[in-house]
Amino acid sequence: MTDAAVKGHAVLETPLADRHAALRARMIEFSGWRMPVQYTSIIEEHRAVRERVGLFDLSHMGELIVEGPDAGPALAGAVVTNPPALAIGRAHYSMICAADGGIIDDLIIYRLAEDRFMVVANAGNAQVVSDALAERLGSARAVLDDQSLATGLVAVQGPRSVDVLGPHTDVDLAALRYYAMAEGTVAGIPAQVGRTGYTGEDGFEVFVETRRVGELWDVLLDAVRSADGLPVGLGARDTLRLEAGMPLYGNELDAATNPFEAGLGRVVKLDKPGDFVGRAALERVAADGPKKSLVGMTMEGRGIARHGYPVHAGERRTGVITSGTQSPTLGVPIAMAYVAPADTEAGTALEVEIRDARVAARVVPLPFYRRTT
Fold first, then answer.
1. How many domains does the chain have?
2. How far apart are the C-alpha atoms of 289 and 260, rounded to whole Å?
3. What residue numbers bound the domain in which 314 lies?
4. What is the CATH number of the domain that holds 190?
5. What pLDDT, in 10s, does the model give residues 84-100?
6. Are residues 136 and 108 both part of a single domain?
7. CA–CA distance, 36 with 30 (Å, rounded to integer)
């Protein structure tokens, strides 16, 4: 990994930075990393993933290995889910919370072996999560190994992802279930392949050693192009995840929000054995109900709701927009927002304040988009 000076401070670059430059990607700073926001256009890249296939550089994400005889129980005490309940080779969505129930980060946890787990954290939170896990493991017979800089990660997403990846791997993709992982090779490179993603489409995330991720990208980019697909930047990744109703840390999730408010109370395993950080606070929320609730909305008037715009129910301010865009798939402006629990029923008429004007909106079920196969 190399550092680059952007806006007067150092940011990290992924090992694929030279590939992005060769593709003339437009680069931005994101969570401390210099990342491609788009290669062609956000709409073209979005549609490529929905209709065919796209290739993503996700090497900015954090990969934390927790290993040892107490790895499972120690992790269960650190996060809101119950990692020991995972079968080997399976994964689940999780969160690590503060004592008050606020979300430190949302995670994917993979069980790689009986006593070995991989925790995938968001790029901007990887160090915070690593520090929190190290503290929470305490005296348990478990070791935390931060493999973030040693791990490269690319994702193949879209209806043709099996066709693209299949010829280049010895992993049985047909047998690989959603939220499962298998070890094998991709393009002749030792890899871990997870059937996971952040787009609402079928797809795979491929973890390899950093020093070989460039080889992997080159092979998969050729395969993606042969399937009429595109490399995809952060811009389309955001519109894809928003259509799929997937939360983004810093927008829908933060330290001032708990999982129940985010509509993710199902993730919190209050019935698991032992204590975990945030249990008491989350038990109170489960009993009393959340003070705000995440909803989907479509705009009925002209205008796109953006992060931070106020939301009103009549003369009462009910909440705030967390994410919004013009949906490339649906052709209408969509948004997610936190509103008062009384204003969450589908069909509820609300208004979004856009440049001092009130624009009509309506609450709709999440997700906005769900693939049919």
1. 3
2. 8
3. 292-373
4. 3.30.1360.120
5. 999 999 999 999 999 99
6. yes
7. 9
pLDDT of residue 6: 36
Q: Using 70 as the pLDDT threshold, list the residues of the chain that sit under it.
A: 1-9
- The reported pLDDT for the residue numbered 3 is 36
Same domain, yes or no: 167 and 217: yes
pLDDT of residue 92: 98
The structure tokens 């330290």 sit at 255
Task: Give tens-digit pLDDT for 210-261.
Answer: 999 999 999 999 999 999 999 999 999 999 999 999 999 999 999 999 999 9
Same structural domain, 90 and 219: no
Res 34: pLDDT: 98
Is 161 found in the same domain as 76?
Answer: no
Q: Quick one: which of 43, 103, 361, 367 has its CA closest to 232? A: 43
Hey, which residues does 295 pair with through a beta bridge? 337
Instruction: Spell out the residues 6+ positions from residue 315 whose beta carbon is closer than 8 angstroms to its own.
Output: none
